[in-house]
Amino acid sequence: MAIVVFLLIGAIAQLIDGTLGMAFGVTSSSLLVAVGSTPVAASAAVHFAELGTTFASGASHWRARNVDWGIALRIGVPGAAGAFIGATLLSRFSLTSARTWMAALLIVLGLVLLLRFGLGFRAIGSLARRPRSAALVPLGAVAGFVDASGGGGWGPITTPTLLTITNSHPRTVIGTVSAAEFLVAVSASAGFLVGAATTGVDWEVVAGLLLGGVLMAPFAAFLAGRLPHAPFGALIGGVVVLTNARTLLRGNDVDGSVTTVVLFAIAVMSVGAAIYAHRRERRVGVEHSFYETGDGA
For 178-193, what is each residue's pLDDT tens digit? Predict the structure, then answer.
């Protein structure tokens, strides 16, 4: 019965990832840590599952003609190198420091989602040219390292950045990021094997996440760039922040009443961001509010 639960988690996470271009790892890792997995086991399980889900997702986006292979390789290869380093380092962290690191990093990534989807925040405007390797290589390397060491982050880092520095169609960016992620998943998994981090991995979890993600991948690829994503993305970011803030606060023995107030404030902020995103989409149009910079919001 447990595998059905993880199958549903995998399907939901892949639906989010395939349509938004981010959040399979962030969502899955947050849920696994919340139910008791160690950070190393959670990140390893997610990346082993992603061996199948990223391949299926990349193939689905390729069939839908959503992939720019030139960009995919230029972020995917350095991303694989960064992921291997991140996985081997996480395998050597103490349990306490790993849990704190992952929770803090996932909170940052959740805030990235909240700002991106809830407020439409972009640091710089789009460039009317294809990005060069000088920009793509460090982007891939950093995103791969964060993804493996934090249990997620490839999409939240690469997708908004590529949407910012290119004028590519959103579904092309999403498909390109998804295709490149297969290299990251392979390399991160190899890093966890080298770091002997597989002893705590629940293979039933891996099987459930993988099966759910593979089944959902074609449907998610079809929907990429075609749905009003902002309210949904803001809520996902809020859930990630809420889940990991709870882990961080309890791990540091923060008073229960303080924890309750903080978590309630995060929940209110997340719902407010989702409502604001919905109103912004209705005002200026779905694609403009999510992908363009015009009003800066």
Answer: 889 889 989 988 887 7
Distance from C-alpha of 279 to C-alpha of 231, rounded to nearest angstrom: 9
The pTM of the full predicted model, rounded to 2 decimals, is 0.65
| Amino acid in the structure at residue 115 | L
Q: What is the pLDDT of residue 126?
A: 46
Total length of the chain? 297
Residue closest to 6 by CA, chosen among 38, 28, 37: 28
State the Cα–Cα distance between residues 109 and 150, nearest whole angstrom: 10
Record the tokens describing residue 253, joined without a space. 């023995």
DSSP secondary structure, 87-133, as one string: HHHHTTS-HHHHHHHHHHHHHHHHHHHIIIIII---SSPPPSSPPPH
Contact 220, 60 (CB under 8 A): yes
Neighbours of 96 (CB within 10 A): 10
Of 8, 3, 35, nearest to 212 (Cα)?
A: 8
Q: What single-letter amino acid sits at 160?
A: P
Any residues with CB less than 8 A from the CB of 203 and at least 6 apart, and which? none
Residues 205-236 have pLDDT tens digits of: 788 888 888 888 777 777 765 666 677 667 77
Across the chain, the runs of DSSP E, i.e. the strands, are none
Domain positions in the chain? 2-291
The CA distance from 140 to 135, in Å, is: 9
- Residue 297 pLDDT: 30
Q: What would the two tokens of residue 261 be?
A: 């107030």
User: Residue 294, SS3?
Assistant: coil
